[in-house]
Specification:
Keywords (chains C, E): ATP-binding, Nucleotide-binding, Transport
InterPro entries (chains C, E): AAA+_ATPase, ABC_transporter-like_ATP-bd, ABC_transporter-like_CS, P-loop_NTPase, PstB-like
Order of helices and strands of chain A: HHHHHHHHHHHH
Number of strands of chain C: 10
CATH class of one domain in chain A: Mainly Alpha
Shape of chain A: globular
Bound molecules: adenosine-5'-triphosphate, magnesium ion
Strand order of the largest sheet of chain C: 6-7-8-3-9-10
Number of strands of chain A: 0
Largest interface: A-D, 72 and 71 residues
Chains: A mainly alpha, B alpha/beta, C alpha/beta
Structural class of chain A: mainly alpha
Organism (chains C, E): Natranaerobius thermophilus (strain ATCC BAA-1301 / DSM 18059 / JW/NM-WN-LF)
CATH class of chain C: Alpha Beta
Order of helices and strands of chain C: EEEHEEHEHHHEHEHEEHH
Pfam families (chains C, E): ABC_tran
Oligomer: heteropentamer
Number of helices of chain C: 9
Strand content of chain C: 25-35%
Radius of gyration of chain C: 18 Å
Helix content of chain C: 25-40%
Distance between the termini of chain A: 42 Å
Largest sheet of chain C: 6 strands, mixed
Number of helices of chain A: 12
GO molecular function (chains C, E): ATP binding; ATP hydrolysis activity; phosphate transmembrane transporter activity
C-alpha cells in the first residue's frame, strides 16, 4: 500500500514543481491523443451517424466489423502502422516512424471504431419519429445527420470520451511506433511502463495518477456542456 | 526544426537502457559531436529486425551469434565489442535447492533441475529468445538437462526486469545479467545471487552500425562516430566505473573481446 | 377552386410484415382542396400521409405529384419534396427551445425570413410565453401547436395534418381551424387532414374521404359525403356503428 | 506488406493444424476474458442502469469518475492488482499472482467502468416517459431497472461488446499480473508482444488475426439477437 | 355513491424552473366518482394526474390518500401506489408484443390471473388481431387502446385517464366510454378523466372541474357545471372563448 501513498505525494510534487521532464511527457501525451481524437471524431462521428440512420444489405456485417474494431488489439494496430511506416514499408520515405506523427496515426486508428461505433449506437437509439419528422420538414441528408447527432449528443459525447480514454491510456502501440524516446515520443503510459520495469513502482503510480487526473479533468469539462441533459431526468 | 542528419537512432535492449548507463554516456556524446541520439528500447530480436529494415542507424545488443549473422547477411557493417558484464544465477533467499553450495555451474543447474522435478520450486525463464534467454538455453543444453514442457519451468516471454519481478513473487530460480539484478535489488527482496563467476556466464555487448549499402537512408557517419566514441579510452574508463558509486561494484567491464 | 391536380395515386399498396395496411386503387387531390380523411383506428390514415409526404416508400403503384411520376424506386428531388410537410399525430420536437424548433424549417432552407411573420404565427398560436422554453417538456396541446407553427412557417404548398387538434381544448381548436382555413385561402394551398372529429371535417373540409381497412371506400364533396353517403360502410361510420 | 500475407497464411495454418500451443493460448484468452466480462456485467449493468435512472447531488462527479474509469490505464490497474496480490500485499497469501485468477480480477476491473458507463448512457437515452409509465403501472425499483435495461438493450449489449473488446485486446495488465507464462497464463495479446519483441512480425500478425476473428465471431453472435433492432429502422 | 374520501389535496403547488404550473388550494375526490377535468392547453391537467399517481413530487402541500397523508418528502408504499394507475396522453408501449404489454402489470405483481378476462378485454378493445404484433409500431389509436387495456387489466381502485380517446374514431370512443363506465360500476372504482371534449365530460362524468392556469376555478356536479356555471372563466370556457 505504501506505493500508493508515496505515489500520490510524488505525483503532487512532480506536478507542482513543474518538472520539465514531466511537463514534456504530459504535453506530448495531450498533443498526440488530442490530435488523434480530433481526426477520429471528424471521420467517425459522421460515419457512425450515417450507419445508424441507413439500412442496406449487409449492414449487420459492417456493424459487427465496426464493433470488432473496438476490440482491435492496439499492439496489432501498432505493428501494422510500424510496418507501413518502416523504412522498407510503403510510407517509409515519410520518415514518420519514431515520431509523434506515427503515434497520431496509430491512435487515430485505435480510437476511430470506438467513436464511430458508439455514435452509431447512440443514433440508433434516437426516437425513430425524429427521422420522419426531419424528412417531413425538408431536411437534406446532411441536415438529418447533423440534427440526429445533436439529439443523440450525450451518446456522441460519450463516444468521444471513450475514444479519448482508450488512447490516452494505451501503451503498446505508442511504444512500438513512437519508440518511447525521452523528450520526444515518451508519453505518460510508456513512462509508466518504463518506471515499472525498473521497479520504481512509486514513480509509476505517480505517472498513473497524473494520467487519471488529466482524464478526469477532460471528462469533467466535456460533461459540463451536457450537465442539463445528465441531470435532467425530472 | 532539427536537421535530420543530426539525429541518430539507436535500437537497444531493455537491460542496457534500464541500467542507466546510456543516460550517463549519450549526453557526453551529444555535447561533443552535436548529435542527438534517439534510443529505441525493444527485445533483442526486434532490435535486429529494426536494423534489418533500416529503421535504426545503429544497434547495441548482446547476442553474439545473432549479431554475427546480422553482419554476415550484409545488414551491418561490422560488430565492435564494447563491453561485457556477466550473468548470475538467482534464487529465493531460503535457497531450497542449496544451489549456493554447488561447486560448479553444472551442479548448480542440476540442483535447480532436481528441485523443480520434485515440485518444491520453479524456474522463471525470460523465454523471449533474448541474449539472456539464449544463454540460459545453451546452459541447459550444455549440461543435458531437458526442460521442454516441464511444469516447473515457467517460460515468461518478458523482459529482464519483469522476469525478475515475477521470480521474486514466485520465489523461483532465474538467470539475470548482473546489471539488471543490481539495479533492481532493492525491490526484489526475495531474490539473491546463488551462483556467480563462471567463464560460461559472460555476456558481451556489441555495437553494429547498419550497413549504408543496404539502406541508404541510415546515418552512417554519425553511427561511426558513436562507435569511435564507445571504444575510446576515456569512455571505456567511464564504463568500468559506472555503478560503483551506487552498487559498490561495476555493472560493466570494458571489453577488448 | 382550380382544377390543377396535385396528387394522383394509382394502385398504391403498402405492406408491413405480411399485413397490407394500404391498398388504394386511385386517389386524386386537387390544388386548393381541403381533403378530410376519416376512418376507424388502424385504417391506414397515417400511413397514407407518410406516403403523400414521400417519407415512406410504397410497395407498388405510382404517385403522380405535380405532374411527375414516382414509384417505389424513385422519390422527388429535394426541391419538390420541400413543398410538402406533415404535422404528425405524435409530433417530435427537438431538444432545443420552442423558437428554435419553429424556425428550423427556415434555417435548413437557408432562407431569409420575415421575423415579424414568425412572431405573428407564434402569437396566434398562444406560444409567446413559451418561446424560450425547452420544447421537449411541453404539454400535449402545446407540442401540437408548436408542430403546427413549424409547418406553416415556411409556406408549404401542401400541408398534411394528422389529427392536429386531438389534444386541444375547444377554443384552441377554433383558432387552429381558422388558421388552417386562412392559410389555405391566402396561399391557395392544398390540405389533407386526418380527423376523428366528424364535426371538424364538416367545418373545414371541401372534400371528405373514408379510409377503411386500407381502402378508399368513398370520396366525395363534403356535403354529399355527409348528407348522402353512398357506401354502406360510410353510413355505418357516420352513425358510429363501424368498428374495425 | 509481406508480413500481412505471411501473417494471414500462418494464421490459417495455425488454426487448421489445431496446434496445441495455439489452442491453449486461445482457450486461456477466452476463459479469462469471458469470466471477467461476466463479473463486470453482473455488477456493471445494474449499477449503470441505476445511475442512469437516479438523480442525486454529486451525480455529475460520479459520472465523470465512471467515464474516467474508461480511460483508466490498464497498466495502472495491472500495477494495482499486482500490488494487492503480491507477496507483501494484503492478498498475497492467496497466491493468485501469475495465475489466471489475478488476470480475471484485473480484467474485471478494466471492463467494469466500460460496461457500467455505457449502460448508464444507454439508459439515460431511453425515452423519459418510460420511467413515468413504469411507475404508473406499479413497478418496483428493481422492475423499473430491468424494464429499462430491456428497452435500452442495444446500448447495453454494446456496453458488453465494448468491455469484451477492451479486455480481449488488452496486454499491459495481463502481462503484469499473469506473467505471460507459456501454457499457463499466456494469452493472445501477450503472445503477440512476445513475437513482436523477437522480431517475428509475421507470427505476431497471425496471432492478431486469430484474436480479431474470435472477437468478430463473438460480436456477430451477440448482435444476432439484436438483428431486428439493428435493421429495424423501417 | 359512497362518501368515502379517496383524495384530499391541500395547498398543492408544483413549479418547473420558476414557472408555477399547479397551485391548488383544495381538492377532494370521493370513491366512485368520475371526475372530468377540463381546461385549456397548458393548464396543468397532466401535471395534476402525475401528482395523483404519485409519480411526481409536489413542491409543497399535502396529499391525503386513502386516509394517510403524503407530502413532498413522503410517498405511499408500493402496495398503496399499486392501487392507482394512469393512461397517459402519449402512452409509452414497450418494445415487446401487444400482449406482453397488456399483461405487464399482472406479471410484475406476480399475480395469478384469469386469462379469459384478459382475452375479453383485448377483444372488447378490438386488439385481438394485433395481439402478437410489436407494440411500438402501432397506430395512434391502437396504442391508446393498448394502454387502456394495460390499465384496466389489474383492477386498480383509481384510474387516471389523460384524454384517453383523443386519437380515436366515434365508434371506438363509444366502446371505451362504455368500458370505463362499466368498470367503474363493477368495481366501484374512482376515475379522473382529462378531456377536451365537453360532450365526453357530459356523457361520462359525475363531477366536472375546470383547471385554469394551475388553479381549480370551479368544481361541481356535472349538471350544475354545465347548466349553471358559477365562475366567469367557466362560462368563457364552455362558450369556447377561453384562450389561455
Ligand atoms: N412500421 C409498422 N410495422 C408494422 N405495422 C405497422 C407499422 N406502421 C403501421 N402499422 C400498422 O398499420 C396499420 C395502419 O396504421 P396507421 O398508423 O396508418 O393507422 P391510422 O389509420 O393512422 O390509425 P389511427 O387512427 O389509430 O392513428 C395499423 O394496424 C398499424 O398497426
Ligand atoms: N418538466 C417540465 N419542465 C418545464 N415545464 C413543464 C414540464 N412539464 C410541464 N411543463 C409545463 O407546465 C405546464 C402544464 O403542463 P401540463 O402538461 O400539465 O398541461 P396540460 O393541462 O396537460 O395541457 P395539455 O392539455 O396541452 O396537455 C405547461 O405549460 C408545460 O409547458
Ligand atoms: Mg394515425
Ligand atoms: Mg396534458
Amino acid at each position: 500500500m505504501d506505493a500508493f501513498i508515496s505515489g500520490l505525494s510524488e505525483a503532487i510534487e512532480l506536478l507542482i514543481s513543474f518538472d520539465p521532464y514531466v511537463m514534456n511527457i504530459i504535453s506530448v501525451s495531450m498533443m498526440v491523443s488530442g490530435i488523434a481524437l480530433l481526426i477520429a471524431a471528424i471521420i467517425g462521428i459522421p460515419l457512425g451517424a450515417f450507419l445508424g440512420l441507413t439500412n442496406f444489405p449487409g449492414k449487420h456485417l459492417v456493424v459487427a466489423l465496426l464493433y470488432t474494431g473496438m476490440g482491435f488489439p492496439p499492439v496489432v494496430i501498432g505493428l501494422f502502422v510500424f510496418i507501413l511506416f518502416s523504412n522498407v514499408g510503403p510510407f517509409g520515405s515519410l520518415e514518420w516512424l519514431y515520431t509523434t506523427r506515427a503515434m497520431i496515426v496509430a491512435q487515430s486508428v485505435i480510437s476511430f471504431p470506438l467513436v464511430a461505433g458508439f455514435t452509431m449506437t447512440a443514433v440508433m437509439g434516437v426516437n425513430q419519429n425524429l427521422l420522419l419528422q426531419l424528412k417531413a420538414l425538408g431536411a437534406t441528408r446532411r441536415q438529418i445527420l447533423w440534427a440526429t447527432v445533436k439529439e443523440a449528443r450525450l451518446g456522441v459525447l460519450v463516444s468521444v470520451i471513450a475514444g479519448f480514454g482508450a488512447i490516452i491510456s494505451e501503451v503498446g502501440a505508442v511504444m512500438m511506433v513512437g519508440g518511447n524516446i525521452a523528450g520526444k515520443t515518451r508519453v505518460l503510459t510508456t513512462a509508466i511502463v518504463l518506471e515499472t520495469r525498473q521497479g520504481n513502482f512509486g514513480l509509476a503510480m505517480s505517472f498513473g495518477l497524473i494520467l487519471l487526473t488529466i482524464t478526469f479533468i477532460v471528462n469533467f469539462i466535456m460533461l459540463h456542456f451536457q450537465k442539463r441533459k445528465l441531470i435532467g431526468r425530472d | 526544426s532539427e536537421d535530420e542528419t543530426s539525429v541518430l537512432t539507436m535500437a537497444t535492449t531493455t537491460s542496457t537502457e534500464d541500467s542507466g548507463l546510456l543516460d550517463e554516456l549519450l549526453p557526453i556524446f551529444g555535447d561533443e559531436t552535436g548529435y542527438e541520439v534517439d534510443v529505441i528500447t525493444v527485445g533483442t530480436g526486434q532490435a535486429l529486425e529494426i536494423g534489418r529494415s533500416g529503421d535504426a542507424d545503429i544497434l547495441l545488443v548482446h547476442a553474439k551469434e545473432l549479431e554475427k549473422e546480422f553482419v554476415n547477411d550484409g545488414y551491418g557493417t561490422e560488430r565492435f565489442p564494447v563491453m561485457y558484464n556477466d550473468f548470475v544465477i538467482l534464487g529465493p533467499t531460503e535457497d531450497p535447492a542449496k544451489v549456493s553450495e554447488a561447486n560448479d555451474l553444472d551442479e548448480a543447474m542440476s540442483l535447480i533441475y532436481q528441485i523443480g522435478k520434485e515440485g518444491d520450486s520453479t524456474f522463471s525463464s525470460r523465454g523471449d529468445k533474448s541474449g539472456t534467454h539464449v544463454k540460459e538455453t545453451t546452459l541447459w543444453e550444455e549440461f543435458q538437462l531437458d526442460i521442454e514442457g516441464k511444469e516447473w519451468y515457467d517460460s515468461l516471454g518478458q523482459g529482464m526486469g519483469d522476469t525478475l519481478i515475477a521470480a521474486n513473487e514466485m520465489r523461483a530460480y532465474s538467470i539475470s545479467d548482473r546489471g539488471t539484478f543490481l539495479s533492481m535489488e532493492d525491490s526484489i527482496e526475495n531474490l539473491q545471487i546463488v551462483f556467480e563467476d563462471d567463464d560460461m556466464l559472460t555476456n558481451p555487448y556489441g555495437i553494429i552500425p547498419v550497413n549504408p549499402d543496404t539502406h541508404e537512408n541510415v546515418n552512417y557517419e554519425a553511427a561511426n562516430e558513436l562507435v569511435e566514441f564507445f571504444v575510446r579510452d576515456d569512455i571505456q574508463q567511464k564504463i568500468s566505473e559506472f555503478g560503483i558509486e551506487e552498487y559498490g561494484q561495476p555493472l560493466f567491464f570494458p571489453n577488448t573481446d | 377552386m382550380t382544377d390543377k391536380v396535385i396528387y394522383n395515386l394509382q394502385n398504391i399498396s403498402k405492406t408491413y410484415s405480411d399485413k397490407t395496411v394500404l391498398d388504394i386503387d386511385s386517389l386524386t387531390i386537387r390544388k386548393g382542396e381541403i381533403l378530410g380523411l376519416v376512418g376507424p383506428s388502424g385504417a391506414g390514415k397515417s400511413t397514407l400521409l407518410r406516403i403523400l409526404n414521400f417519407i415512406e416508400h410504397t410497395d407498388s403503384g405510382e404517385v403522380h405529384f405535380l405532374g411527375k411520376v414516382y414509384n417505389k424506386d424513385s422519390l422527388p428531388d429535394l426541391h419538390t419534396r420541400r413543398k410538402v410537410t406533415t404535422v404528425f399525430q405524435r409530433p417530435y420536437l427537438m431538444t432545443s427551445s420552442v423558437y428554435q424548433n419553429i424556425i428550423y424549417p427556415l434555417k435548413i432552407r437557408k432562407q431569409n425570413y420575415d421575423s415579424q411573420r414568425v412572431e405573428k404565427i407564434i402569437n396566434k398560436l398562444g406560444l409567446t410565453q413559451l418561446k424560450n422554453q425547452r420544447a421537449d417538456k411541453l404539454s400535449g396541446g402545446e407540442a401540437q401547436r408548436v408542430s403546427l407553427a413549424r409547418a406553416l412557417i415556411f409556406n408549404p404548398e401542401v400541408i398534411l395534418l394528422d389529427e392536429p387538434t386531438s389534444n386541444l381544448d375547444p377554443a384552441n381548436v377554433k383558432i387552429i381551424e381558422d388558421m388552417i382555413a386562412d392559410y389555405r385561402n391566402e396561399f391557395n394551398a392544398t390540405v389533407v387532414m386526418v380527423t376523428h372529429n366528424v364535426f371538424q371535417a364538416k367545418r373545414l373540409a371541401t372534400k371528405v374521404s373514408l379510409l377503411y381497412k386500407g381502402k378508399i371506400v368513398e370520396i366525395n364533396d363534403k356535403d354529399e359525403f355527409f348528407t348522402n353517403p353512398k357506401h354502406k360502410v360510410t353510413k355505418q361510420f357516420l352513425s358510429g356503428d363501424l368498428v374495425y
